[in-house]
Amino acid sequence: MGNVKSNPLPEPEPELTLPPEATLPPEATAAEEIDDTGPSVAPNIGLKTTGLWSFDRSNDWSKYYPKCDKNAPLTAPLNIDTSLVAPCNALCRLSVKYEPTTCSISMVNNIPTVTFSPNCIVKFKDDFLYLRKMTIHYTSMHTVNNTYSDLEIMLYHNRNPINDSDGGIILSILLNKGEDYGTANEFLNEFINQMPANEMPIEKDVQVSDSWCPDQLFPSSKSFFYYDGALPYPPCNQNWTFIIFEEIVPISMNIIDTVKYMLGTNKKNIRPIQKTPKGVTVFYNSNTQFDGVQDMSSAAVSAAITPVTTTPAALNLGSKSWLKQNIYYIKGIVITIILILMVYVAIKFAKIIVENDLLNSFIIRQLKKKQGLEYSKSQSDMATQQAAEYGGVAPVEAPPPNNNNNNNNDNN
Asked: Where are the bilayer-spanning segments (predicted)?
């Protein structure tokens, strides 16, 4: 296992006190600790955007998210001490099947997030999981031998296609300042300058090339460390497995500066390194290539994965709700349906007009009406002209019949 020069381990985060106004609203309960980036009614504890938790106050997370307690049985991130890892080559096979995908960007709790279409899949220890999203962190969440890297990118492969509540596998890629070229630079440059610098919970689609694929981030050597841990931010669900690639990927300084700008001056979106819990072992797979023995064919994937229909809770409309995550797709579907209905109605209307010769009948009626008007006008003009020439009086229209006179005559 090679050593790569990186940033020294910073001083431990000082204990921070919760301001008096940062109290949990009475209506907020443990049930409202939703599964993604925090509750929609989470307390304000020193945030860039009011109402959400903050990396700056990670010491206070456990007050509202018990699973974030420093003594939790599973936690993250950890320091990877390479002298203490246990080999697991045959017991921790990792197979990857990534294909070009789409890109949607968002920013929640100061975490730049990219959401993908379900085109990428991994198999780890007999489990198939689809890639759902990735997050970008400055500096790295994990350390190797107490050394930080400049960035860490986490690729989330979820058991639940909608949110993070059911856990899954996170592939972590460590990045350090390096060349301005390479596949990782090409991958990030296609969207990094469009990432928001402020909170943007609703995803925005970004146009990327047809060959854009997350496997461009992978290092040349596929050797990795892995351990069973937890989501490294609230609600800290303890059902995530971390796979951290050993080789550090070079990335341009321009991309590092762009990420720093997005997060804000002197801001980091990382949790301090946690003490490795008792009973947690960090394993090491020294294989330099992904496993090629496991069956990754479409038939094998289909046979192993049973589609699950997930119905979002009707009232669960927090900043990362199902509705907000899919708002653009819903709008697109609604607009498409409306357009189809408009075309259908137009075709039916045209068919009725043609079959009943309505257009010709309408034109003929209008022509006859126009001819009648022109004839009446010509007769009136002729009568007026004759009256003027012969000293007569122009004809006037007869008054309407008088019903009263008729009645009187009848009585007489």
From this structure: 327-347
Pair 329, 118: CB distance under 8 Å? no
- pLDDT, one tens digit per residue, over 332-380 is 888 899 999 999 999 988 888 888 888 888 888 888 888 888 888 888 8
Pairwise CA distance, residues 255 & 258, whole Å: 5
Kindly report, residue by residue over 170-216, the tens digit of the pLDDT: 999 999 999 999 999 999 999 999 999 899 999 999 999 999 999 99
Read off the amino acid at residue 8. Answer: P
Single-letter amino acid code for the residue at 28: A
Closest CA relative to residue 248, chosen from 225, 230, 267: 225
The CATH number of 66-306 is which of 1.10.150.120, 2.40.160.20, 3.10.200.10, 3.30.1490.190? 3.10.200.10
Distance CA 388, CA 372 (A): 24
Q: How far is CA 325 from CA 223, 318, 320, in A?
A: 34, 10, 6
Q: Which has the closest alpha carbon to 134: 161, 149, 112? A: 112
Burial 5-18 (b: 16+ CB within 10 A, else e): ebeeeeeebeeeee
CB 113 within 8 A of CB 107: yes
